[in-house]
Design goal:
Layout: E1 4-9, E2 14-19, H1 24-46, H2 50-80, E3 82-87, E4 91-97, E5 106-109, E6 113-123, E7 126-136, E8 143-148, E9 153-154, H3 155-177
Antiparallel strand pairs: 1-2, 2-3, 3-4, 4-5, 6-7, 7-8, 7-9
């Protein structure tokens, strides 16, 4: 697993564009199982009479969604999956791209933002885990998780994105207080 991340900032927002890079063997196994599953559903459906089909259409559709639809979505995620994450001083936003369809941009406002790291496993490149974003509530100052990345990333990449988020907050602080960045030039 070698997921890729592109991190950049415009001074107001910190952006992370994360691309899934799943193993080819896992994708082939999932594809094979889906083909077998669809083949079994076609055989089962062809042995049912026309009068029974009308009675079973709703349960059949529900079963198809769970046993075929969700694995197809998972396969598309492993083939084309992208996660777009945008953080600024007021809210975080994210969306997922499955190649053939993209989710709407979801935005959540926060009072105070905190970041964290959850180690999932270790590989030859080092620690791999998830970035977790917390909201510290004004009422009780307790952290509440508001988002975590679905794609596993190296700890160094998460640290780099965390630095970009801090820079966005620094720039906002300088702008609000009229500070001019100091330079020796």
């Amino acid at each position: 697993m070698r997921n890729r991340i592109e991190i950049y900032s415009d001074g107001i927002n910190a952006y992370a564009h994360i691309k899934v890079n799943a193993s080819k063997t896992g994708i082939r196994i999932l594809s094979l199982l889906l083909i077998i599953e669809i083949f079994l559903f076609v055989i089962l459906f062809s042995h049912i009479g026309l009068d029974e089909i009308i009675e079973m259409i709703i349960p059949f559709l529900i079963i198809m969604v769970f046993f075929v639809g969700l694995p197809i979505k998972y396969l598309l995620w492993n083939l084309y999956g992208n996660e777009q994450l945008i953080v600024n001083t007021k809210c975080i936003s994210w969306s997922y791209d499955y190649g053939f369809f993209k989710t709407n941009l979801k935005t959540i406002k926060f009072d105070r933002l905190g970041t964290g790291y959850e180690k999932v496993m270790e590989n030859d490149k080092g620690e791999v885990g998830k970035l977790i974003l917390y909201n510290y509530s004004r009422e009780n100052n307790l952290p509440q998780p508001i988002h975590q990345t679905t794609v596993l990333l190296n700890k160094d990449e998460i640290t780099e994105f965390d630095i970009q988020i801090r820079n966005v907050f620094e720039n906002d602080f300088f702008d609000k207080n009229g500070f001019i960045p100091f330079s020796l030039n």
